[in-house]
Structure prediction request, 224 residues.
Amino acid sequence: MNNVLLLNGSPRGKKSTSASLGNYLLGLLKEANVESKMLETRNQINTEEKITEMLEAIKVADFVILFTPLYDDCQPYNVVKVQEIIFKQKMNLENKFFLPIINSGFGEPEQISEGTIPIYKRFASQVGFKWGGSLAIGGGEMLQGRYGKQLHEVGNMAKNAIVELEKIVGSIKSEEEYPDTEKILIPGYFYKWPMKNLVTYINTRSWKKEAEKKGEKVDARPFL
Ligand SMILES: Cc1cc2nc3c(=O)[nH]c(=O)nc-3n(C[C@H](O)[C@H](O)[C@H](O)COP(=O)(O)O)c2cc1C
Prediction:
């Protein structure tokens, strides 16, 4: 493979888990002498000039890797828009691979693999991309991308993701298939007592506080 295009689909842009995963992969690809660049989709959909720039980048790419968060079983708006743009363009994508890397907030990558990956598979087959495999990452907030942290700065938490990104580079270089893969970044002890109870308590409290700030009556029981 000569040319890899990375698309960052996070509405958070440069300060996102998608961006930190993408930056790390970009570094690995550069080390492996594979020409690559990353575009932020939220900046590529608003003017004809930017759309053309993105489509030109897709035209010369052999491999398109999309990094994006999970939004309610689906993709964020700007990714839907990119999919629509590619669909309408009727480009020849026959020899190009498409590989989505999707991260979610909760530690349940199966929400991605069961619900969302089929949507991306359908998109790929409708526009003519070859399926290049996929990576579903549960607990993506652990990578602290929204604070601008890079993978090498978050220690062990990034270990699982890094191993997979290295495998992806290996399969791009050797043109071997990368499988549909699920990874959880949240350590197992988060799911056991007492951490489980503590995390549930803290989460519930902060969700309630957020809802109250927006005027919701969080303890209302109207059907009692
Ligand atoms: C509108 C919205 C919907 C979301 N839906 C889900 C969801 O269904 N399941 C989940 O685990 N996380 C969900 N999340 C959390 C994001 O997937 C998570 O914060 C992710 O790490 C953000 O990645 P990014 O920094 O690359 O944008 C949602 C976030 C937003 C803003």
About this structure: The chain has two domains: 3-186, 189-224. The pocket of flavin mononucleotide is lined by residues 10, 12, 16-18, 69-73, 103-106, 111, 140-141, 145-146 (CB under 6 Å).
